[in-house]
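Lab notebook, design round three. We kept the backbone fixed and only want residue identities now. Task for the bench partner: fill in a sequence for the structure below.
Input structure tokens:
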């Protein structure tokens, strides 16, 4: 007779069990990561665990991807060339950090200049981000409106000066959080109404009791004229003023609010969810309310540049979008 295969000898009591192989460990690690992702998504969206699991499965997430209602991107890799990263800003010399925070503590023009330097212009596939002539000046006007219409949101100058001496720009972000949010919400208004509100704020600032505010108002009035008043070229022909950099100002404040409240800054690469043909694109801006993370994102797709607005759970963020982030895996 032909002998059958020998059976494995029984394991003696107390003997160590077989060690799982690399594939089993890798599968276990991926399972734990997916369960964490499902729990985070359920907590973020307020749905049941089973619903969150189905939503994530339907999105067809690849390793390192996440839905846009979780995580944070401040300096997107698509715009990384010639721009700051979180690590690079943290590694600056203490003297440079202190100079920066002292500038950022001066409202409105100093903070506007600080933010324009912190989030400099960049291009992605020929599309400009955080750009525009007189962006810092227009941003200062926006802060002037926020301070004029809600003076209670303006931190006392002495408090700002003391905070600046810490040399930590995020400490100033915390002190100015309500004012920063009000400045961003101002941009939700229609352009014509924005200019009316800026005119009123400039007029009031020119009679402000603080000399520094009156001086800033005079400088911003000159910038306002450059943005709004037609001129003549060298041949004496009428010349239309440059378009106001509203988009660049908006993107700057979007990136700033992301630092404290999470979300994904303009320039972050995304795709629409699903397991079919991949449709990738880029975040152009975020939508905000009085508190919390973005409620929606304005995006364009690579195959369709028409702007569209998408809710965060309906958007997939591609892997390792933060300039300093390692590639994430399940």
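Proposed sequence:
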């Amino acid at each position: 007779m032909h002998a059958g295969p020998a059976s494995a000898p029984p394991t003696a009591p107390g003997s160590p069990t077989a060690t799982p192989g690399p594939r089993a460990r890798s599968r276990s690690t991926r399972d734990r990561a997916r369960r964490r992702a499902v729990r985070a998504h359920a907590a973020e969206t307020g749905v049941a665990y089973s619903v969150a699991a189905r939503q994530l499965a339907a999105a067809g997430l690849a390793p390192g991807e996440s839905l846009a209602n979780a995580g944070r991107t401040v300096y997107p890799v698509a715009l990384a060339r010639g721009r700051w990263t979180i690590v690079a800003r943290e590694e600056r010399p203490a003297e440079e950090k202190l100079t920066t925070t002292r500038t950022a503590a001066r409202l409105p023009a100093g903070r506007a200049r600080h933010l324009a330097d912190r989030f400099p212009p960049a291009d992605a596939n020929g599309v400009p981000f955080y750009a525009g002539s007189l962006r810092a000046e227009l941003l200062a006007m926006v802060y002037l409106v926020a301070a004029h219409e809600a003076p209670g949101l303006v931190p006392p100058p002495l408090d700002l000066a003391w905070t600046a001496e810490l040399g930590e720009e995020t400490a100033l972000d915390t002190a100015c959080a309500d004012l920063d949010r009000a400045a961003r919400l101002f941009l939700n208004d229609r352009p014509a109404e924005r200019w009316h509100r800026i005119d009123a704020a400039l007029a009031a600032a020119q009679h402000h009791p603080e000399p520094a505010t009156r001086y800033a108002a005079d400088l911003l009035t000159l910038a306002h004229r450059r943005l709004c008043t037609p001129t003549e070229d060298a041949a004496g022909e009428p010349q239309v003023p440059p378009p106001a950099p509203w988009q660049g100002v908006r993107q700057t404040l979007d990136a700033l609010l992301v630092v404290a409240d999470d979300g994904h800054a303009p320039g972050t690469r995304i795709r629409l969810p699903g397991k079919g043909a991949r449709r990738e694109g880029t975040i152009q801006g975020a939508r905000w309310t009085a508190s919390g993370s973005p409620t929606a994102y304005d995006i364009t797709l690579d195959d369709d540049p028409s702007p569209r607005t998408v809710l965060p759970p309906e958007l997939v963020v591609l892997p390792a979008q933060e300039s300093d982030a390692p590639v994430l895996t399940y």
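Keep this in mind before ordering anything: The mean pLDDT is 87.
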